[in-house]
Amino acid sequence: MRPFASAPPRRTTDRLPLVLAAVLLLVGGLLLALPDRAGAAADTLISQGRPATSSSVEDSTFGPEKAFDGISTTRWASAEGVDPQWIKVDLGPSATVSRVKLVWEAAYAKAYRVEISADGTTWTRLATETAGNGGTDDWTGLTGTGRYLRVYGTARGTSYGYSLYTVEVYGTTSTTPPPTGSFTVVAAGDIAAQCTASSSSCAHPKTAALAQRIAPSFYLTMGDNQYDDARLSDFRTYYDKTWGAFKAQTRPVPGNHESYDPAGAFAGYKSYFGAIAYPQGKPYYSYDQGNWHFVALDSNTFDDAAQIQWLKDDLARNTKGCVAAYFHHPLYSSGGHGNDPVSKPVWQILYGAKVDLVLNGHDHHYERFAPQDPNGRATADGIVEIVGGMGGAEPYDIETVQPNSQKRISGTYGVLKLDLTDTTYTWQYVGTDDQVKDSGPTYTCH
């Protein structure tokens, strides 16, 4: 019995004797000739070209989007030798699914589930396979409604990973227009240590390569871009050789290490980034992408009345429906630095303006928090904070777990992959091995 469906789903496979296949083909042809045959109305393919994500990829040539591109020779492939793994597609605001067709490569799943979800967090099972043998699995008679569909592999059929040429989802979609203005941003803080790719322990070349493989619309950094004193010579020797490859697409903010430059606070940072970091003549600025307004702040100078007044004026002028702010020092953190009260007055301004998302660095770990207000009280209209300080600097341990902290990872270098639409946002923390270490919920903008 396969639960959570009005009738047991049916799975067909292409591993049939040739004679039987020929008979079925003949019968199928006769049925097609009958105009009032049972089930004559064909299911509609609703997944092709839709945004896709996965738990991991073997390498950048086998991304999850390849399973939904309508090309039979391209494929998604997960990392090898690891269970479980999954691939997920965003079908739009809501869809009713009646059929899912999977075409496996040689690296198939012996056991997997087909699941659907309204929010990408809570999943309902549509079908279960416990004795898969690869080839084509065609699940029909399904009944499920949601925005996201995933194939969740629990046992590999080979020593490799999971690989699908095709995932086809059939059914009907909501008449509500799908989210528009979708784009991806890569974010990280605490990046370039004084080391190069010649050292196997040097992490920032690996996070830079990962960031490039994701190929976002742009990159943003949450401070401490260059260690230890952020001299111009160090920026040129270390940061520029890795993250500098996409410098023109980067929107940085400074951290406390940028202020340690013996040539003067922020001298190397300002010389290296120039107008990229000072587009409005100050180390704080704002810009728009789609229906999002981004506010880049200098948390070293939150006592600067000019910056605070600029922030209030900027938010008052904003006409976008979603707002993200980013700066170095987190108000809340379970890491070695812990909570930083210097950010609380700014949080109060952001909260009053219904800002959705705050990104920080400073503590060298990954952490996400449930929506909360400036006083740390959980509330649905609160700000979601993410600490993303694993861009390359030495990791910090988790020390005191803060209220509303939902997930913490230390010791695994990686970047944030933010997926944004005109009305929603979600993200993944992706490690330098291309595996997804954590996936955030999907939130609707305030």
UniProtKB/TrEMBL annotation:
Record field: transmembrane: none
Alphabetical keyword list: Signal
SUPFAM superfamilies for the chain: Galactose-binding domain-like (SSF49785), Metallo-dependent phosphatases (SSF56300)
Gene3D superfamilies: 3.60.21.10, Galactose-binding domain-like
The UniProt record lists the keyword Signal: yes
Domain F5/8 type C span(s) in chain numbering: 33-172
Pfam families noted in UniProt: F5_F8_type_C, Metallophos
UniProt keyword Metal-binding, yes or no: no
Protein name as annotated: Discoidin domain-containing protein
